[in-house]
Structure formats: structure tokens, C-alpha cells
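Slide 14.
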Amino acid sequence: MSVELEECIRTVFEEHLSESVVSVQEEDVCSGVTRLLDKRRQIKDVDKVLRTQRREFEVKRESLRQRREELKKKEENLKDSLLKFDKFLKENDAKRARGVKKAASERVVLRERERELEQLHTHIAALQVKEEKLQVRVERFRVYCEFLHTTLKTATKFEDVGQLVARFETLMSTREQLLRRQSEMERQRESESLALRCYISQQNSILLQDNNTLSQLQTELDSVLSHTLAQESSLKLIQAAAVKETHLLSQIKVVSRNLYHMTGVTGTDQGVDGDDTVEQLEQTNIISKD
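Slide 15: predicted structure.
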């Protein structure tokens, strides 16, 4: 109920009470009875309006209660979603930590492989230099071929020239395999890093949207609570006005009963029920006119 309606009802009650007191004190008995009858009718009209407003208020309050329950359910669902999302983020952080640890381990392995590769490069370069020198020597000093075979026989590492060539080819094949493995690992690392950045960006966007939704729901909840408090305050004012109205009605009944007793009809056949205020007022009015 609006503040203007409350002020209007309060003013009507005050005017009714003020006019009733003035009429009882200053006007004669007949005029006071007539005014009391008018006030009775006015009170009935006001009571009818109050009952109508009260029914409307009950409907609004029930609607607000249902809305509050809906908001409470939405809030609980949102809390569940946030808990699930928080759990998801923690699991994702754990996966990312494992991925970072794995990448660090692979980088260590890669550096070890690079060191081995450098050693192999050094070894291969040395072998190539040695091979070139051997070729030069073979070409330039064919006469020493027999001496070379004799020397290889005394060596413990290689038994003949064929073994030396086979060792060189093995090292070259190993080098190519390591280079291919290194290239594959680099491509895999770049792909995983890109996928991780995209996933983090998507999760940040989802988190921002959830935060905005939560803020909007909180604002709506605060507005509904504020409106409910205002409605409850209005209900208290209406109840206070109803108490005043009941008190005024009790005073009217007492005055009506006293006026009726003053007419002296209570002892005759025309006596009416002591609780029938309207009939008492009408009998008093008829007798006063006579």
C-alpha cells in the first residue's frame, strides 16, 4: 500500500474521532445520534476498503514469498555451479602443473640430448677429418696401404677399414634420428602451449560471466528484500489503524447504549438486543423525534 493511501486513512480516522468527540460534547443528543449513524456507515465503507486492500496485500506478499523462494533456489544452484567450477579450476591447475613439470623434464632430456648430439657432432667431425686425411693419404700414399692394414691389425678399437666406415655411417644415422626427434618435440611443445593459452582464456571469460550473473542476482535479491520490508512496514501501519478503528467502534457502542438507556425504552416491549448498536441508534433517533 502506498504512503499516500496510508496518510488518507490516517486522516479519515483522525477526522472521524475529532468530529465524534466534538459532536458528543457540543451538539445536542439528536444531532449526535445522526452523526454517529453517519460515522457508522463511513466506518463500514472504510472497513470494506481496508479488507480489499488487505486481500491485495496478501496476494502481493504471497507473490513476493514465491519470488524469494525462486531466488533462493537460483542462489543455491549458482553456489553449486561455483563449487563445481572451483573444483574444475583446481583440477585444471593440477593438470597444468603436471604438464609444466613434464615439459621441464622433457627440456632437461632435450638439453641432455643436445649435449650428446654436440658430442656426436664433435666425434663425427673428428671422424670426417680423419677420414679425409685417410683418403688423402690413401691417394697420395698408396704405397703405405699395406702399412695401414698392418697398423689396423695392431689397433684394439677397429679391426679393419670397413669397421671404421660402418661406425661412421652409424653415427650419421643416429644424428639424423636425433634431429628428427628434436624437431617433433619442438612442434609438440608449441602446439600444447597454444592449446593451454586458449583454454585459460576461455575459462577466464566464463568466470567473468559467472561473476556478472552473481552480481546481478545479488542486486535483484537486495531489491526484493527492501521491497518486502516496506510492505511489512505498511502492514503494521494498517494493523495499527485497524486497532484505532476497533477502539472507536467500541466507544460508539458505549455511547449508543447509554443514549438508548436514557430514552427509557429498555423496560418496554420495544427493547432491542444490547449488542445491536444500529437498532439502538435508530430507536433513539425515532424517540427523540417524537
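Speaker note: Residues 3-289 form one domain.
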